[in-house]
Write a structure and sequence with these properties.
The structure holds two protein chains of two kinds.
Chain A lengths: L10 H5 L8 E2 L2 E2 L1 E2 L10 H13 L10 H20 L8 E4 L2 H16 L4 E6 L8 H10 L2 E5 L12 H5 L3 E8 L11 H10 L3 E5 L11 H4 L3 E5 L10 E5 L1 H6 L10 E4 L4 E3 L13 H17 L1 H20 L4 E4 L9 E6 L4 H10 L2 E2 L1 E3 L4 H7 L4 E5 L6 H18 L2
Parallel strand pairs in A: 3-15, 5-6, 5-7, 7-8, 8-9
Antiparallel strand pairs in A: 1-2, 4-10, 9-10, 11-12, 13-14, 14-17, 16-17
Helix pairs in contact in A: 2-10, 3-10, 4-5, 11-14, 12-14
Chain B lengths: L2 H15 L12 E7 L4 E9 L6 E9 L2 H14 L4 H5 L3 H8 L5 H7 L1 H14 L5 H7 L5
Antiparallel strand pairs in B: 1-2, 2-3
Helix pairs in contact in B: 1-2, 2-4, 2-5, 6-7
Classes of the chains: A alpha/beta, B alpha+beta.
């Protein structure tokens, strides 16, 4: 791949696209540091969705009239944008879902129920989001398969030397991992895991919800079999997500939901399924949301993923340096060069909920809780953490306000 | 510092740092535990009844969580001591919120009333006192 120097990201110009940054919270401009949870939306996406509704909206794939054709064109155009964004071989392998969570459940149910049984092993990791953990735990229990996890070390990195032992437990059938940890920001060695999975005849499932907004995703280079991500974490609307799967796997799977659109023919005796990807898209989809998802991918691509990555790296270095200066603050996870723009930390003897509440008085929005990673919280020995996370519109000044807010937290609690 | 922050500091922090009724009671006549899945707050409540088997003689709690949840449970122990199981079973959450005395957002409200809910579950299990629907979710234990 030809490497061209990343164009620098002009954060102030980008921020003008986001009306929310004019919003005052408790009399102060909002410092939105919760983009790992969900991102804010630029007017380009909002305007495009409104225009779509006003000029091109009808149900998709059914009508022969002009509006239905426009809507279908918009919806299928978004599918092609998703395909290109992750370098999938074919847009027939791209399925629109409600969310990354639904995409992962689709795999666990449609692939897992048919392909897992006693003597098989499902492998997940200790830093998995519940969305890529609980579906597999559930399906493993249903089918009698073993449920094994790859532990992490104290720096939040996967301990791949545990794989040999895991392989002795039975037939490894599936390895499921997030490309980036939503709590620690750790960038996981998915290529290595995919190679190991394939050596053992297993499939590799990648939760890219935290990776796709921040880094180039190439499903062919990763060597995975399934990959899921969502619209709302990449500047798009909520209610839309995407699943990519290898054609031969998707072809062999039964549908996840049944209803309209996903059938070829229905009679009292039997029903046959529609072709890919429609076999997995029962019911009227989130049409305008899928369309907006595509526009958001255009927006992010135009800013440039290299530029976004470089911008977030600067921010995370700045944040980790500043936070490390505050006595009593402990940062979890790997060094800055091994993570995306996510920093989870604790403030000694102050619960993260209280940290977040006091930060909110200062207009600083962070996430406090277990981040849907309770096994990871157990491993870290905490009930919850405070998490600051950044995106293309985040600034150094917002991080400075976080730091000032944390000093206020310590003052309030006498900590 | 705003009045709200001042209140947070004085009332909540006092109970948070010096919790009343903190610690397990062993033996206990009634006990229950509950979690707030939003933030991972945990509270376990222990109750001892007096000779009439109805009046709450002593109440203790263990837990970990935010200042609101732990301080509110501390206040709760003071509020319910000397009352009967059926009185506490029908104690409206507003009575506890009045004690806490600061405005709470819906999310923080869940933290504040966690201990009260757990206490109602403990009394329900030990004495069969009514458990209104709004508290029943805490008593459910649904696992895979």
């Amino acid at each position: 791949m030809a490497v061209s120097p990343a164009k620098a990201l002009e954060v102030e110009r980008l921020r003008a696209d986001f009306a929310v940054f004019d919003e005052l919270v408790n009399g102060k401009p909002v410092a939105y540091l919760d983009s790992a949870s969900s991102t804010q939306k630029p007017r380009q996406v909002l305007d495009a969705m409104r225009e779509f509704y006003e000029h091109s909206y009808a149900n998709v794939h059914r009508g022969v009239y002009t509006l239905a054709e426009r809507a279908t064109e918009g919806y299928e155009g978004a599918r092609e944008k998703v395909r290109a964004y992750i370098n999938a071989p074919s847009n027939r392998e791209v399925i629109f879902t409600r969310s990354a969570t639904e995409a992962l459940n689709l795999i666990a149910y449609s692939w897992g129920l048919e392909n897992l049984g006693e003597g098989d092993v499902v492998v997940i990791t200790e830093l998995e989001h519940h969305a890529n953990f609980v579906p597999w735990q559930f399906i493993a229990k249903k089918t009698g398969a073993q449920f094994a996890h790859i532990p992490i070390d104290d720096a939040g990195e996967l301990q791949l030397d545990a794989l040999d032992e895991i392989a002795t437990r039975g037939n490894v059938k599936v390895v499921a991992n997030n490309l980036v940890s939503n709590t620690l920001g750790t960038i996981n060695p998915v290529e290595k895991l995919a190679a190991w999975a394939h050596e053992h005849g297993a499939i590799m499932v990648v939760d890219a919800a935290q990776a796709a907004p921040h880094r180039h995703i190439d499903v062919q280079a990763l060597g995975c079999d399934f990959l899921a991500f969502s619209s709302h974490k990449v500047c798009g609307p909520s209610g839309a997500g995407a699943l990519w799967g290898r054609r031969e796997l998707l072809d062999a799977m039964q549908p996840f939901n049944f209803g309209g659109e996903m059938i070829r023919s229905v009679s009292l005796e039997r029903t046959s399924w529609n072709e890919l990807p429609y076999k997995f898209e029962a019911g009227t989809p989130a049409i305008a949301e899928a369309y907006g998802f595509g526009v958001a991918l255009d927006y992010v691509s135009e800013v440039g993923l290299e530029a976004i990555e470089a911008h977030e790296r600067e921010l995370v270095v700045h944040a980790m340096e500043e936070l490390a200066e505050i006595p009593g603050v402990r940062i979890f996870g790997p060094p800055a060069d091994r993570r995306t723009g996510i920093v989870s930390f604790e403030v000694a003897s102050v619960h993260p909920h209280d940290v977040a509440q006091i930060l909110n008085w200062e207009g600083v929005a962070v996430r406090a809780g277990h981040h849907c990673t309770q096994p990871l919280m157990t491993r870290l020995g905490v009930a919850a953490t405070t998490r600051a996370s950044f995106y293309l519109y985040s600034t150094h000044e917002e991080i400075d306000r976080l730091v000032a807010g944390l000093l206020k937290v310590k003052e309030t609690f006498g900590a | 510092m705003s009045d709200l922050e001042q209140m947070y500091r004085e009332v909540i922090l006092d109970h948070y740092k010096n919790p009343r009724g903190h610690g397990a009671l062993d033996p206990a006549d009634a006990t229950a535990e509950g979690q707030n899945p939003l933030c991972g707050d945990e509270v376990t409540i222990f109750v001892r009844f007096g000779e009439d088997g109805e009046t709450i003689d002593d109440v203790g709690f263990e837990g970990r969580g935010c200042a609101i949840s732990q301080a509110a449970t501390s206040m709760l122990t003071e509020l319910v001591k000397g009352r009967t199981a059926s009185e506490v079973a029908s104690l409206p959450k507003e009575d506890l919120l009045e004690e806490i005395g600061i405005p709470l957002t819906p999310i923080r409200l869940k933290c504040a009333i966690l201990g009260l809910g757990v206490l109602k579950v403990a009394l329900h299990r030990a004495k069969g006192t009514p458990l209104p629907p709004e508290w029943q979710g805490l008593a459910d234990d649904l696992t895979i």
